[in-house]
Amino acid sequence: MRNVVIIGSGCAGNTAAIYTARANLKPLVISGHEAGGQLSLTTLVENFPGFPEGINGPELVENMRKQAQNFGAEYLAGNVVDTDLSGRPFRINIEGEWIETRTLIVASGASARWLGLENEQKLIGHGVSSCATCDGFFYRGRKIMVIGGGDSAMEEANFLSRFGSEVTLVHCREEFRASKIMLDRARANPKIKFLTNTMVDDVYDVSKGVVTGVRLRNVKTNAAWDQEVDGFFLAIGHVPNTKVFKGQIETDADGYIISKGGARTNIQGVFHAGDVQDRVYRQAITASGAGCMAAIEVERFLEAEGH
Ligand SMILES: Cc1cc2nc3c(=O)[nH]c(=O)nc-3n(C[C@H](O)[C@H](O)[C@H](O)COP(=O)(O)OP(=O)(O)OC[C@H]3O[C@@H](n4cnc5c(N)ncnc54)[C@H](O)[C@@H]3O)c2cc1C
Question: Which of 11, 82, 84, 135 is labelled catalytic?
Fold first, then answer.
């Protein structure tokens, strides 16, 4: 029987592990399919406090993991494939093996949607990004492309226009899902150029290890052409990793956990941390802060129960 199991080894899970380990709760962290979380995908992180020259994403999360392990946190590779949160202890199935825990911290994140192109995946962190707030600064005076047609695409295009020499917004349809106000704002921005009915067929150039351009195609005429670009930003949504809690932890229609205040979920003893509940800020520092909150709630919850 565990005091606390933490699902996810990104910033939220690792920070929760540091705090609960230092509270002597011997946390077990389930690393999941993406050990280190989303930061393990990227290169330089310049906005996490404490690193004046920046730090590489994988190194930052690896440091957090080591810090948690130094205080006794255990890490287990594997995915949670099922959960039974109907009564306590909670039961967690890790690839076939059930374990029991008094409390649970869900820090399973929200994965960015990608186009799924082979070269796009190889160039993540080298010109391909899913986070304008994180990476916009790297593209000052450069050519930027944003993919998407919803509010977040408009918001990201507007934000990125502060940095880029030009921003091309590419959308596969004629009509936009974005609200009129967001669309109008983007249309009024002289730096943003719209390309509708356009698909991305490929991203170049893996051999150079950096984005230099894309292959585009008009879906109506099938005409294809290459366009030079330095920063390629996906703004086609995120998928919260909450499938294994379906029908148990309350989520909104998109699958984000609904907070019941602080780090609490609708189930007593189950707490949320990080992007799995946050559709607004989605930053390493906010995820870490949320991990700290969840850990403190766990400590108090267990204390109140005499553990
Ligand atoms: C390319 C890129 C660049 C970024 N750059 C920056 C930046 O410069 N600065 C910044 O502040 N933020 C940046 N971000 C955002 C930042 O990475 C996220 O906000 C942060 O990682 C969220 O942390 P998290 O712990 O909530 O979730 P994640 O990092 O998404 O971690 C989720 C964890 O849950 C695990 N998991 C999921 N499902 C399961 C399951 N069923 N069983 C077990 N484990 C599971 C995963 O394996 C993973 O370890 C960037 C994001 C991306 C994609």
Answer: 135
- Beta pairing partners, 228: 213
Predicted confidence (pLDDT) per residue in 2-19, tens digit: 999 999 999 999 999 999
pTM (two decimals) = 0.91
DSSP letter (8 states) at residue 294: H
Q: How far is the CA of 36 from the centre of ligand 1 (A)?
A: 7
Q: Where are the alpha helices (DSSP H) in 50-90?
A: 57-70
Can you read off the two tokens belonging to residue 98? 């059930």
**Distance between start and end Cα atoms, the chain:** 12
| DSSP codes joined into one string, 238-278 | EEES-GGGTTTS-B-TTSPBPP-STTB-SSTTEEE-GGGT-
Please give the number of the atom of ligand 1 that sits closest to the Cα of 281. 19
Instruction: Kindly report the backbone phi and psi dihedral angles of residue 52, in degrees, each rounded to the nearest multiple of 5, phi listed first.
Output: -60, -30
The per-residue pLDDT for range 24-74, each reduced to its tens digit, is: 999 999 999 999 999 988 888 999 999 999 999 999 999 999 999 999 999
With a Cβ cut-off of 6 Å, ligand 1 is lined by 7-13, 30-35, 37-39, 41-42, 45, 47-48, 79-80, 107-109, 112, 124-125, 129-131, 134, 241, 244, 274-275, 282-285, 287
Nearest residue to 192 (alpha-carbon basis) of 227, 241, 143, 235:
143
3-state secondary structure 111-177: EECCCCCHHHHHCECCCEECCHHHHHHHHCCCEEEEECCCHHHHHHHHHHCCCCCEEEEECCCCCCC
Nearest CA to ligand 1 atom 7: 134
Atom of ligand 1 nearest to the CA of 111: 30
Neighbours of 179 (CB within 10 A): 12
| Ligand 1 atom nearest to CA at 34 | 47
Residue 200 host element (H or E): strand 198-204
